[in-house]
Amino acid sequence: MIDSELQEVIAEDVRRALREDVGSGDITAALIPEKATASARIITREAAVICGVEWVNEAFRQLDPRIEIAWQVADGDLVTPEQCLCTLSGPARALLTGERTALNFLQTLSATATLSRRYADAVAHTKTRVLDTRKTIPGLRRALKYAVTCGGCYNHRVGLYDGILIKENHIAAAGSITAAVAQARAMRLDVPVEVEVETLDELREALDAGADILLLDNFKRADLLTAVAMNKGQARLEASGGVTLETIPQIAETGVDYVSTGELTKHIHAVDLSMRFEDS
């Protein structure tokens, strides 16, 4: 769902992208008569889960609000090769200028949504949720995390401000897991406290310290099963490390609450899209 906060992010994403691409002006589009109009359509050349509709709308809105876009799909829809996603009509110069920026957003966000759907489907027989990470393209954090949800997966913390994740270096600096969790509690923030653990002994210490979530880093399947048994529902368990489409079903079947993977937002392959102008 696109709320007002995300809409502001979209507007800024597009402003930045257009500024990068258009610069002082599209000197090639200037070859076209100023009053010329055109019609076009965006198609996909491969199966995908679509994401980025509002980024496309915003790109052309900022260039020329006279451009009309009629969408035949919505974010989260599964599409097939050669399917028409939308038709566009309006000033030809603006359509030409906005083509690459619009497609860049659509192909990238659809890539994350498509991969996220594959991961969600891989654990659909379990109660485990697949989470993203902060391993995102700089400047596109909110966009990519929105794409993850369009594919059926879930967001971990958005940034460093909305959740505490105590990792190996934090533990070393604080002196121990117990000390780090105690300091987190002393801050009295209304956010979950998560601790990354690498052994079952660290798991026990984090449980005793009262962590809300335990990140089980590169645990083998047998150790994941032991961790679930030790936890007894006390904290939420998140498995991470070595996660692929092939391994995630077995990881989820251990009974962990979450599996997180950076692949959703960094190991992506842009969806093959094309914007074709119609003959006048």
How would you portray this structure in words?
The protein has 280 residues and is of the alpha/beta class. It has helices at residues 4-22, 53-63, 92-122, 141-150, 168-174, 177-186, 200-209, 221-231, 248-252, 263-266, and strands at 37-44, 48-49, 68-71, 78-79, 84-91, 129-131, 164-166, 193-197, 213-217, 236-240, 258-260, 273-277. Strands 6-11-10-9-8-7 form a 6-stranded parallel beta sheet. It is elongated, with a radius of gyration of 23 Å.
- Compute the average pLDDT: 97
Q: Please report the distance between the alpha carbons of the first and last residues.
A: 36 Å
Helical stretch tally? 10
- Shape call: elongated
Question: Helix fraction?
Answer: 40-55%
Strand elements, count: 12
Low-confidence residue ranges: none
Could you provide a short overview of the structure?
The protein has 280 residues and is of the alpha/beta class. The protein has helices at 4-22, 53-63, 92-122, 141-150, 168-174, 177-186, 200-209, 221-231, 248-252, 263-266, and strands spanning 37-44, 48-49, 68-71, 78-79, 84-91, 129-131, 164-166, 193-197, 213-217, 236-240, 258-260, 273-277.
Give a topology summary.
Elements: H1 4-22, E1 37-44, E2 48-49, H2 53-63, E3 68-71, E4 78-79, E5 84-91, H3 92-122, E6 129-131, H4 141-150, E7 164-166, H5 168-174, H6 177-186, E8 193-197, H7 200-209, E9 213-217, H8 221-231, E10 236-240, H9 248-252, E11 258-260, H10 263-266, E12 273-277
Parallel strand pairs: 6-11, 7-8, 8-9, 9-10, 10-11
Antiparallel strand pairs: 1-5, 1-12, 2-4, 3-5
Helix pairs in contact: 1-2, 1-3, 2-3, 3-4, 6-7, 7-8
